[in-house]
Amino acid sequence: MLEVKDLHVTVEGSEILKGLNLTVKAGEVHAIMGPNGAGKSTLSAVIAGKDGYEVTAGSITFEGRDVLEMEIEERAQAGLLLGFQYPVEIPGVKNIYLLKAALNAQRAARGEGEIPAPEFMKLIKEKVAFMKMDTSFLQRAVNEGFSGGEKKRNEILQMLVLQPKLAMLDEIDSGLDIDAMRVVADGVNSLRAKDRGILLVTHYQRLLDFVVPDKVHVLVDGRIVKSGDAELARELEARGYEWLLEETAA
């Protein structure tokens, strides 16, 4: 589904990714871990098409298409979706209007008509209830006045409505208490499907207790230096990153 080959990325003249390789197959959940400044958030931002990143070498393909040649809205329409580490507030735009507009844009890209209002309301109420959010959130401006946990739930709500082919979650667990963590994890787990890939960027093992990944990759200084199964994340929790940094330096 996703193939990243020898990816080199610079930000404001500094090289952040230094030859990164990653393959995500449909049906798999991959976790990206690593110390601060290793390039974890840069990877998902570049795949999604965020401004401010310069790809100097390498390639990214999604279902055989050259991602780097696609506009950001084309990436979204193709099924790429990024859940932000710091979700932005959009004053004056109600949650329900954003969700409906995004869903209809997605349908239009597939050659489908707009979703009928009753069908949309049934869908949205079902997903809001699943995320244990009050329906009043739908009438509030996007993320405006939301707590950190509410913003993260809102990111997952968007994913549940839009059903992306590849969901990328950038530290979706940061700032969550244990109850919110469970709700967000339930939302992520409900997205698991044989035709969908999920990429989790996280610092902490605790999210991976709830969303058990198929593969864990450790990113150090712009490259993936070690990959394994969920047990690797538990080893990192117990030992930290120092041993890997020493191995990499050697």
TrEMBL record:
Pfam families: ABC_tran (PF00005). GO terms for molecular function: ATP binding; ATP hydrolysis activity. InterPro entries: AAA+_ATPase, ABC_transporter-like_ATP-bd, ABC_transporter-like_CS, FeS-cluster_ATPase_SufC, P-loop_NTPase. SUPFAM superfamilies: P-loop containing nucleoside triphosphate hydrolases. It comes from the Bacteria. Keywords: ATP-binding, Nucleotide-binding. Gene3D superfamilies: P-loop containing nucleotide triphosphate hydrolases. Signal peptide: none annotated. Residues 2-246 form the ABC transporter domain. Belongs to the ABC transporter superfamily. Ycf16 family. PANTHER family: ABC TRANSPORTER I FAMILY MEMBER 6, CHLOROPLASTIC (PTHR43204). This is Fe-S cluster assembly ATPase SufC. It comes from Halomonas heilongjiangensis. The gene is sufC.
